[in-house]
Design goal:
The complex is a heterodimer of chains A (126) and B (333). Chain A is mainly alpha-helical. Chain A has nine helices and no strands. In chain B, the strands form four sheets. In chain B, strands 9-8-11-6-7-10 form a six-stranded antiparallel β-sheet. The chains are: A mainly alpha (126), B alpha/beta (333).
């Protein structure tokens, strides 16, 4: 295995500055999608943006201190408001589009989506 | 039970209660206005005890290091013993130098502080009357001017605005606390297009910011939108038209929901902004005034491509009466 392959997607994308650019694109997509925007509405857009940056950092294998338990607790109120698989799929779709728009090669996009998929049970509190 | 000590007495807190609510409930007078962690009128200092992190959100590092916190946002966990004092040390004595109506419903209040106040145009201060009544107002003046200027909306039944309109006289003494807020112009990227939009007295900070940017030599286009329900809610229109004539880069667009004319657009503020500035990608923006409108405008501009870090927002919050929690000085700023 070469050194490049051992690097996380996060590092290959360019680390924190790349996440800052990605989060704006991603946040715009989820906020403009009426199926899921109500889960992302927040008076404090900076806070909401920081949460999504943490999510993007997590699914790209970057440095976050975010456990499956945090993921469960954080989404529990949303699950009570009806968060389900269709919403999860919509978010995953926007994640895919965001990465593609930013020119991330397909194999890396697949890697990120696989990590995102692995959070499904925790996000939906199953 | 958590408890808080103020002026040598201990006061118990109910579970989840804020320091501000507990002290007010037990008849201790603490300056306050928005009670939502924004206006900083209820600033206090912890002499001993541990503060919850949330109590210091939004404060300058220098204030945090000295133990200052917002009483309305401070909900100490069970078992906390907190000793607190007021923020009198941070207040600057001032006197009213002029009271000038800008329209039927807006009063310009000019203040001269005993010592110069360091601030950025567009920030806000708390005005503290001798009896402790406190309200938060944006600064419309520039730091180089020798007085501070506030635009005070006259609220029906408003305690501070009513007093300023009817009883206050030049020479009357007050105190000023602050400044606070991050809604101001930072020099740099002079060619960047700027978008300033506000409703009502949200024009006050924008009037400071636009002149600050022009004086700093900002060369890119500057769009200033001022919205009101009817033409009587607009003010400083002549001054702004004159400013725009002197600076061709400045586009001043007053707008109203009803009663528009040749010079005043009619319609919703966000619709006018979208038609004049359809693609604000890479722009910098300041939005000030009515809370819900400003927050909805921020979302729309973000979706239109403005970056969050370029969006500066000052959403005016109503002041809350001490006990009944009814709105008495809605949108005081």
């Amino acid at each position: 295995m070469s050194v490049a392959e051992e690097k996380s997607v996060y590092e290959q994308l360019g680390g924190a500055p790349a996440m800052a650019a990605a989060v704006e694109v991603f946040y715009r997509k989820v906020l403009a999608d009426e199926r899921i925007s109500h889960f992302f509405e927040d008076v404090d857009m900076e806070r909401q943006s920081a949460k999504q940056k943490a999510f993007l950092t997590l699914v790209t294998g970057g440095p976050v201190h975010y456990s499956g338990r945090d993921m469960r607790a954080g989404h529990a109120p949303l699950v009570r408001r009806g968060l389900n698989d269709t919403h999860f799929d919509a978010v995953a779709g926007h994640l895919k589009e965001t990465l593609e728009e930013l020119g991330v090669p397909a194999p890396l996009v697949a890697k990120v989506l696989a990590i995102a998929e692995s959070t499904r049970a925790d996000v939906l509190n199953r | 039970m958590a408890k808080v000590k103020h002026e040598s007495s201990w006061y118990p807190l109910e579970p989840g209660e804020s320091v501000l609510d507990a002290l007010l409930r037990q008849c201790v007078s603490i300056p306050n206005a928005c009670r939502a962690g924004a206006c900083q009128s209820c600033l206090m200092r912890a002499v001993s005890g541990t503060l919850p992190e949330a109590a210091q959100v939004g404060l300058k590092d220098t204030l945090r290091a000295q133990g200052y916190f917002l009483a309305c946002a401070c909900r100490p966990p069970e078992g906390t013993a907190l000793e607190v004092t007021g923020a009198e040390a941070l207040r600057v004595p001032a006197r009213i130098s002029a009271l000038t109506p800008l329209s039927d419903s807006v009063l310009s209040v000019r203040l001269r502080t005993d010592i110069p106040l360091a601030y950025h145009a567009g920030q806000y201060i708390s005005l503290v009357r001798a009896d402790g009544l406190t309200r938060s107002y944006s600064l419309a003046s520039l730091p180089r001017e020798d007085t501070l200027e506030l635009h005070v909306r006259l609220q029906p039944g408003g305690a501070m605005s009513g007093w300023l309109a009817r009883e206050a006289r030049p020479g009357d003494r007050l105190q000023v606390q602050g400044p606070a807020g991050t809604c101001f112009y930072v020099p740099g990227r002079p060619e960047q297009p700027l978008l300033l939009a506000g409703t009502g007295t949200g024009l006050a900070p924008l009037y400071g910011i636009v002149r600050d940017a022009l004086e700093a030599g900002h060369s890119g286009p500057i769009w200033l939108f001022h919205g009101a329900r009817t033409p009587s809610g607009l003010y400083l229109t002549q001054a702004l038209r004159a400013l725009a004539e002197r600076h061709p880069s400045l586009h001043y667009r007053p707008c109203v929901l009803e009663g528009g004319s040749r010079d005043v657009a009619e319609g919703a503020l966000d619709v006018l902004i979208r038609s004049e500035c359809p693609k604000p990608v890479g722009w910098r923006a300041w939005l000030c005034g009515d809370g819900p409108l400003v927050l909805s405008l921020r979302k729309k501009l973000f979706l239109a491509g403005l970056s969050l870090k370029e969006l500066h927002v000052d959403a005016f919050l109503p002041s809350v009466a001490p006990v009944q929690r009814v709105t008495t000085d809605a949108g005081a700023r």
